[in-house]
Amino acid sequence: MFLCYVDESGYNGRKLNPKQPVQVMVGIFPNVYNFHRSDSEFRQVFDIMKDEAPLSEIKGEQIYRGRGPWRDVRPEIRDSVIEYYLDWVASRNHKFIVTAVDNVKYFKLAESEADNTFIRALPYPYLLSGLHVALVIQRLNKSKKKNKGRTILIFDEQEEFSNALTELVFNPPEFIDEFVSFAPEKEGARLNQIIDTAFFVRSHHSSMAQVVDIVAYLFRVYLELTAYGFPEAYEGERNKIAAWISRIQDKFISFNVIYPQKSKPFVQFMSSVKANGI
User: Fold this and answer.
1) What is residue 153's three-state secondary structure?
2) N or C: which end of the chain has fewer CB within 10 A?
3) In 10 A of CB 91, how many CB atoms?
């Protein structure tokens, strides 16, 4: 059995925010057998930082930008906390599913092609990304025997779309067969590698949800700086973020798996709205 914890960065909800043109969603597969040890290691940062900032959870944007409880913490200390977790990720055997949607492309398509089959089923970027993560899990694990690929899918708490996403995962549209093949007589149900449906957890209750928050935020900033022309907030920012991403990129599931080269309409739709730089 697997666990997959998921969070996003660059969330737009039901309306385009031009200041956030990219939504990144990241899922982590922690090793279940070492989960409690990993959880304990992750929480060590709260003890390390207790004299600098009173923390109940880790938020990538707050650490990096010096916001919230990190407001008065020196930049070099904030960077060292991020690097602590990147080193932690790099030294573990956990893998990441990373998806990225171009919010501008998505909302323009929704406006110009309201009758598009895929837009009708997935009218907002968050819903596509959440379903996309489930599809990748299905593709990765369906060949595992004796239900060894069965996965509990856990998202960071999300009030706006949680009901819609749980229904999508529980009863997915037939067109997902274009992404991952479905054999009714053998598999019984689409997304049969997902146990029940998507679940949601408050991030301060889950160390793994906080890990993916950091990775999703840093990858979003990376895309904004390298593929979307965002200016650096300070000299050398682009190179620093790129170096941080390169430190953990070998833990990412190949983008060829996440965005396969197929001529099927749904797969082409997913590729048409993916973020630049992927």
Assistant:
1) strand
2) N
3) 9
- The arrangement of secondary structure in 2-272, i.e. its CATH architecture, is 2-Layer Sandwich (3.30)
Inform me whether the pLDDT recorded for 49 exceeds 60.
Answer: no
Per this entry, what is the length of the chain? 278
The helix (run of H) or strand (run of E) holding residue 9 is strand 2-9
pLDDT digits (tens, 9 = 90+) for 156-189: 888 899 999 999 999 999 999 999 999 898 888 9
CB-side exposure of 130: number of CA atoms within 13 Å?
A: 31
Instruction: Give the residue among 229, 132, 123, 240 at the shortest CA–CA distance from 180.
Output: 132
Is residue 6 within 8 A of residue 156, CB to CB? The reply is yes
Question: What are the C-alpha distances in Å from 20 to residues 41, 202, 247?
Answer: 32, 23, 25
- Residue 79 token pair: 């960077």
Q: If you average pLDDT over residues 15-44, what whole number do you get?
A: 79
Contacts of 67 (CB under 8 A, 6+ apart): 61
Q: How far apart are CA 197 and CA 36, in angstroms?
A: 24
Contact 14, 124 (CB under 8 A): yes
For the residues of 51-78, what is the DSSP string, one character each?
TT---SS--HHHHHHT-GGGTTS-HHHH
pLDDT tens, position by position, 198-224: 999 876 656 777 889 999 999 999 999
Give the three-class secondary structure for 277: coil
This prediction's pTM: 0.91
Sequence ranges of the domains in the chain: 2-272
Give which of 126, 94, 91, 100 is closest to 28, Cα–Cα: 94
